[in-house]
Amino acid sequence: MMRACAPRSAAFAPSRARGDGTHRARRHRRAVARASDDDDALSKVFRDVYVPDQNKEMFFGVFQRDVDRARVPDEATRAELRREASKQLTNIGAAERARRMDVGKGASALSALVVVGQLATGATRLERLAVMIPLFFALGFVGSAKTGL
Question: Alpha-carbon distance 128 to 115, whole Å?
Fold first, then answer.
């Protein structure tokens, strides 16, 4: 036996009744407001440490240095670099990628030296965990250099 349901009136749910998507947009705005950057402590720290438009560039992944105005290309070249970066989905330049690769290779070499040293000295299993620190740096910096992120 089927029950009859009373139809919803447009006054009860106007945005759903119209079907114009305003209900979904309103829900999205509320979700964005709840997850805003103002509530995110990590986001606040990054905004304080890495202030945009301060004529600084990233150096070795985490450090900043002043931009040398003599090395800044003209506007047309910068526009082309931005277009290329958006196609490749990268956000760091070739020079910074090369620096990160150098750090990654150095950390890889350090990891290898730590492993050789541990094998030569008969390190315990717990002591062998120390190789993870330079190894994680190596993987992180090499990965960042390869992906451009």
Answer: 8
The Cα–Cα gap between 129 and 106 comes to 19
CA atoms of 94 and 98, how far apart (whole Å): 6
pTM of this prediction?
Answer: 0.57
Query: Alpha-carbon distance 60 to 76, whole Å?
Result: 27
111 neighbors 135 (Cβ within 8 angstroms): yes
Exposure letters 22-37 (e unless 16+ CB within 10 A, then b): eeeeeeeeeeeeeeee
pLDDT string in tens for the chain (149-residue length): 555 555 554 444 444 445 555 555 555 555 555 555 456 787 788 777 777 777 777 788 778 888 888 888 888 988 888 888 888 878 788 888 999 999 999 999 999 999 999 999 999 999 999 999 999 999 999 999 998 88
Provide φ and ψ at 12, rounded to 5°: -75, -45
